[in-house]
Every structure is written in structure tokens, then in C-alpha cells.
């Protein structure tokens, strides 16, 4: 009967909720030990200048090899934010990215900008810029090759956020706005703050082929970025068609079309083989 069916659905629903709560609890507990256990890794994804086909940057993306397998950032980052664990994890990410940057320098590889993601919670830490400064100094990183990516959600308080960003920029660090155009307040961010890079969200790149409305919006956003003299990065390029179209806009591209995020060794191998990024892919 319908009543029984409803009951069953309810059963499924609560089972599902219990399962989710249990997994969240497991993740939270395992996350507390993940740094000490050395379970985090940074992968890197290339950013390519579409005109010259040259590698211009690498975005560091966190990976967690947990006791119960690989867990994706979209699952564990929100939990890390909720619990405050993002603060030590975020510091680990900054430290590891700086270590890697220096390691590449030591090995004689081309100096390439490395971008690191920071969450709003880290940004709200009043000591954030001091911590970043300390880590950069510890590794003696040339700040011109270091960028921090943040999303519009940091704009909880425009005054406070712009002050923090100015502090970071005074250190010579570049600031990128990530997932630009995905939320509602994107224009508020760039209206109030000087930034170095605009990263256009994948959702605005997805349906540009043969869709005039989407293309109109994308080209307007690119123009805004160019008028503000920021570097414009198109995120999530997956096809040749998208790449060709974006090439005509003269932006930087990032996406599976060029490469998925990969371990540092992959780039080292390519640099060693002097395999330059100047060939068509
Ligand atoms: P994000 O910073 O916007 O990073 C881009 C995401 O899109 C990455 O997912 C990347 O692997 C994925 N991606 C890149 N190109 C393509 C493509 O062509 N197609 C598709 N389908 N996806 C593509 P990932 O690595 O799973 O990271 C997800 C999000 O987790 C990141 O989005 C970022 O918000 C957050 N995250 C990752 N690492 C860190 C970190 O170290 N700290 C903080 N606070 N957040 C991080
Ligand atoms: Mg990012
Ligand atoms: Mg993004
Ligand atoms: Mg994102």
C-alpha cells in the first residue's frame, strides 16, 4: 500500500541520513590526525597562456589519502571549515606549496607561479597575513611567484576583507578571485578590491559553444577583467572547441583539456625532457 511504501521511504531516508552523519563523523575524526599521519598531498594543475601555449602557473589542489581511501576536497574541505581544522590544514598547504616551489627552483626548473586556495575561515583569522608572511620568509620564497585564491564568500565584511587583501598584496603576494561568476556578489568583490587574477568559474565555460547568451555573458566578464588589468583565467576547459573560442579572447586556460591535477613528478619529468607546452594538445 501507499502507506507502507511511505514508511519504507522514510526508513530509507533515515538510513541515508544516519550513513551521512556517520561518514561525516569518521571524516572529522580522521581529519584531526591527517596532518600528523602525513596523509595530505598537493597535486598541481597547469595554467596555460592560450596564445603562446606556455605554462604560466600551477594551481595547488589538496588531496587526502585517508585511512578509508581518497577523499575529495569537496567532501572534506567543508568539514574542515566547520570544525576549524582548515586553519592547521591551510597552513600545511601553504608550507608544502612553498617547499615545492623552492624545490623546483633548486632543481633548476623554470620559475612558475604557484596558486594556493584559501578558505574564508582562514581569511577571517586576524593572524592570516602574518602567518603567510612567516611561511614565505621561512622558505625564502619570491612572493611574485606566489598567489592566493579566494572566493567571493570572503566578502563577509568588505572593509575587513579589503584590508586583509591589501596586507597580502603589500607582501608582494598575488590575489586571485576564484569561481568568479558562480555566486551572486562577484561584482561587489572586484568593485571594492584590487586583485591580480580573475578566475572565471567552470559553469560559465561549460555551455559557451553555440549558446549566444552564455557567450555574451562570458565575453562581458572577460572584458571587465581586462579593463581592470587583471589576468583572466578560464577554469574547467574540457574541449578543443572551448579552447579555440577562449584563445580568441586572449586569456589563460586551465582544465582537463590540458591536464588533470597531477603530482609534481609529472611536471618534473616533462621539464626534464624539455617537453615544452608550446605544442598543440
Ligand atoms: P577550485 O579551487 O575552483 O579548483 C578547481 C577544481 O576544478 C579542482 O577540483 C579541479 O580538479 C577541478 N577541475 C579543473 N579542471 C577541470 C575540468 O576541466 N573539468 C572538471 N570537471 N573539473 C576540473 P578539486 O581538486 O576536486 O578541488 C575542489 C575545490 O576544493 C577547489 O575548487 C577548492 O575550492 C577546494 N580546494 C582544493 N584544495 C584546497 C586547499 O588546499 N585549500 C582550500 N581551502 N580549498 C581547497
Ligand atoms: Mg582554486
Ligand atoms: Mg574555481
Ligand atoms: Mg571551487
From TrEMBL:
* EAL domain span: 24-275
Which superkingdom, per the lineage? Bacteria
Tell me the protein's name: Diguanylate cyclase (GGDEF)-like protein/PAS domain S-box-containing protein
Q: What is the lineage of its organism?
A: Bacteria, Bacillati, Bacillota, Bacilli, Bacillales
Summarize which stretch of the complete protein this chain spans. Answer: 775 to 1055 of 1055
Amino acid at each position: 500500500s501507499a502507506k507502507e511504501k511511505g514508511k519504507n521511504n522514510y526508513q530509507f531516508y533515515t538510513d541515508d541520513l544516519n550513513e551521512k552523519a556517520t561518514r561525516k563523523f569518521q571524516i572529522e575524526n580522521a581529519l584531526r590526525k591527517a596532518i600528523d599521519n602525513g596523509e595530505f598531498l598537493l597535486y598541481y594543475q597547469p595554467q596555460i597562456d592560450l596564445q603562446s601555449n606556455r605554462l604560466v602557473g600551477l594551481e595547488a589542489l589538496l588531496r587526502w589519502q585517508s585511512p578509508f581511501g581518497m577523499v575529495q576536497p569537496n567532501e572534506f574541505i567543508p568539514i574542515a571549515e566547520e570544525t576549524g581544522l582548515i586553519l592547521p590544514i591551510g597552513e600545511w598547504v601553504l608550507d608544502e606549496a612553498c617547499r615545492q616551489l623552492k624545490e623546483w627552483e633548486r632543481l633548476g626548473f623554470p620559475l612558475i607561479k604557484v596558486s594556493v586556495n584559501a578558505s574564508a575561515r582562514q581569511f577571517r583569522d586576524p593572524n592570516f597575513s602574518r602567518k603567510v608572511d612567516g611561511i614565505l620568509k621561512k622558505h625564502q620564497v619570491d612572493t611574485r611567484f606566489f598567489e592566493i585564491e579566494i572566493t567571493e564568500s570572503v566578502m563577509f565584511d568588505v572593509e575587513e576583507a579589503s584590508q586583509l587583501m591589501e596586507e597580502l598584496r603589500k607582501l608582494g603576494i598575488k590575489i586571485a578571485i576564484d569561481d568568479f561568476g558562480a555566486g551572486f556578489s562577484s561584482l561587489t568583490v572586484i568593485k571594492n578590491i584590487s586583485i591580480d587574477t580573475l578566475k572565471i568559474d567552470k559553469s560559465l565555460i561549460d555551455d559557451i559553444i553555440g549558446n549566444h547568451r552564455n557567450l555574451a555573458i562570458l565575453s562581458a566578464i572577460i572584458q571587465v577583467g581586462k579593463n581592470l588589468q587583471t589576468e583572466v583565467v578560464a577554469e574547467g576547459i574540457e574541449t578543443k572547441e572551448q579552447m579555440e573560442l577562449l584563445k580568441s579572447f586572449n586569456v589563460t586556460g586551465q582544465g582537463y583539456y590540458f591536464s588533470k591535477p597531477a603530482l609534481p613528478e609529472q611536471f618534473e619529468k616533462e621539464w626534464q625532457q624539455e617537453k615544452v607546452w608550446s605544442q598543440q594538445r
